[in-house]
Amino acid sequence: MERNINSLTGYSLKASNGEIGDVKEFYFDDETWKIEYLVIKTGGWLSGREVLIAPHAVKKVDWLNRFFKVSLTKKQVENSPDIDIHKPVYRQHEIELYDHYAWEGYWLSGFYPGGYLGVSIPFPSIEGKGTMPPSSDEKGSKDDLHLRSTKKVTGYHVHAKDGDIGHIHDFVVDDQTWQLLYLVIDTHNWLGGKKVIIAVADILKVDWDNSKVYVDLTISAVKKSKLFKETVFNPWETEREIKVTLPVIPMEIL
Fold this sequence. Notes:
Layout: E1 2-4, H1 5-8, E2 12-15, E3 18-29, E4 35-42, E5 50-53, E6 58-62, E7 67-70, H2 74-78, H3 91-101, E8 111-112, E9 121-122, E10 147-149, H4 150-153, E11 157-160, E12 163-174, E13 180-186, E14 195-199, E15 203-207, E16 212-215, H5 219-223, H6 230-233, H7 235-245
Parallel strand pairs: 2-7, 11-16
Antiparallel strand pairs: 1-12, 2-3, 3-4, 3-10, 4-5, 6-7, 8-9, 11-12, 12-13, 13-14, 15-16
Domain PRC-barrel: 17-62, 162-217
Pfam family, one: PRC
Organism: Mucilaginibacter paludis DSM 18603
């Protein structure tokens, strides 16, 4: 099913022996636009440290109660490499993390270990982009920086072929493959402030240095794009609101 990223932010992450923390944001590969890590803000048990968890560690999702269940222990997370996510995450950091958890690196084969169902899927590539890891002498170089934060990319300005169309408000992801499929664009006032959905496949290029995204669409085409409705991508929220607002009927009345 397709879900919007903003609705997943704040989900709890539970280990096999207790709660780890809450989802703060997601990191995606800027070549494949696939989610590679959940960024978790741990609680007091780990002094609020932020850790990276790969999506294929997620074995169960409770959409109604908003939590991910992972096949890890709290001790494993506590002993994981202390990666400062406020600084660039290089491939070497990822290798250390994957070695610790005994995960197979997603960059080592043509298959990515899928979502919480554990289904292996073909590793996607965006036309004109390679998927080979950098050579050993490139580790730590600028070319080795390929992870982007959904939180930081939110707000990027989006340009059609013939003008500015707004900024990124959200993303839509496939909850089985963790592939980002669409950008949710806030059109400001020129389209009545409506939010529209644009396919990642329509991206021509991204100017990461200047926070700009260029798409292969005209403003006219954007006007005809599908409107974003959060209830479509997060139906559980409506059900949860209904449960919360239903009045409690005293037993003696029943």
